[in-house]
Amino acid sequence: MTITESIVLGMVQGLTEFLPVSSDGHLALFQAFLGINDNFLTFDIVVHGATLLAVLIFFRNNIVLLAQQTIKALYLRKLNEVPLVVWYIGLGTLPAVLFGVFIKSSLESLYTSFTAVGLGFLVTATFLLIANRVTHLYKDLNSLSWKDSLLIGIGQALAILPGVSRSGLTVSTGLFRNINRESAFTFSFLLAIPAIMGATLLDIGNISTINRSDLTLYLLGFVTAFVSGYIALTIFKRLVTQNKLSWFGYYTLILGIVTLLVFSRI
Hints:
By secondary structure, the chain is mainly alpha-helical. The protein has one domain (3-265). 71% of the residues lie in helices and 0% in strands. It contains 11 helices and no strands. The protein has helices spanning 3-18, 23-34, 41-58, 60-75, 84-102, 114-131, 146-158, 166-176, 181-202, 215-241, 245-261. α5 runs parallel beside α7 and α5 packs across α9.
């Protein structure tokens, strides 16, 4: 891997991890475009750690408040005072865990298929374009139900498929459940924290395989992914609240068609 590739892939990961356009789909396309055939599992772990740090800092106020309320409730042994959002984050995480344990290994062949990536982009586009038309939004974080969190969690689990955007499906599902735009955005990324953290920790042992000569490349990828990820969160929040999901919907629609017509023949 070169310095340019490290920076480009770090930036792609940071931007597409949080924008509703599918990070794994874009990484697959960029690696094909750049002619990169190496296995970048360790690099993926590093940049995922960077995006995790970005989301933790971006939502630090929400996280600190929920943590304080939860710790206080547990200390007083009053489970009924643990914020419902915390319980719902746990419930919403279950589908991704189950999919990861029982289904992901059987889908490994799809991750090298540009046809699967292209179809995944089209699925993302469909969700985004339909969700953009939802107008009756009256729920906030304090009025979520267990059904809301479970369905949003299923949307997150489906993002295991290549080309399917985690943020795209979770925010869209939140809107389908009549959750207001800012709350759908916030819950989507609070739900992302255990998912990204779990995926990173599962493969953290590979970090030890990094050669000292490659530390600069990994550091550049980490910093680039963190900065671009934080910027992506800022942009996405603004566009979600301004009801502009269709921008991403048309983008992934076009990208899906191009992927099927061009890259799937590579």
